[in-house]
Amino acid sequence: MAVTDDHILTLTCPDKPGIVHAVTGVFAAHHHNVLDLQQFSDPASRRFFMRVHFCPAGSAPPGRAGTDHLLRRPRRQLRRPLPPPARHARHQGRPGGPRARARRPARRRARRARPLHAGAVADAGARPYHQAYERGVKITGATAHFVTADLDEGPIIEQRVARVDHGMDPKELAEQGSNVESQVLAAAVRWYADRRVFLNGVKTVVFA
């Protein structure tokens, strides 16, 4: 019976021809099985991003139980705070080949769900859902992003919106917003934990 053992390689480096061929050539030479490969070349930053999920020769991918059901619950229903993300190795291109560098990841959180007007303008001030109700908004949304020194200015990981029914009262609007926020937070944490999120300057590359 094969031993379950899988790995994830993440690579960020200056873009140039032949990177995919070089990486997959190493896997082939060592008889590793590539389970999934995603890549992106950004013409603006001239950076290359790659995520490879693979198993060494003679291994099989393990089954995993996720925590998505916990993260989807409204935050007020969680009895204790979630632990900070674990350390991980991030591979970056350097002259002479890629080098692994361990970094402590920045803390992340989901932006509080805010009702949106047409044109994606968020309500400001206190009691936002009462303001939204009075203005007759048609959508509500939430954003998950990296935390920085500037409030709500970190690189965005995920955004989602939901339709608002004209018959909803402020309490129902708040519940709708909380549901969207929980979904966005769950997706962002899951993708980050699975090493699918790459920083690209003030933006992100997300292999969802």
TrEMBL record:
Gene3D superfamilies: 3.30.70.260, Formyl transferase, N-terminal domain
SUPFAM superfamilies (alphabetical): ACT-like, Formyltransferase
Keywords for the protein's UniProt record, in alphabetical order: Hydrolase, One-carbon metabolism
Biased composition (Basic residues): 100-114
Stretch forming the signal peptide: none
Pfam families: ACT, Formyl_trans_N
Domain ACT as annotated: residue spans: 8-90
GO MF, one annotated term: formyltetrahydrofolate deformylase activity
Matching PANTHER family: FORMYLTETRAHYDROFOLATE DEFORMYLASE, FORMYLTETRAHYDROFOLATE DEFORMYLASE 2, MITOCHONDRIAL
The protein's name: ACT domain-containing protein
Organism of derivation: Hirsutella minnesotensis 3608
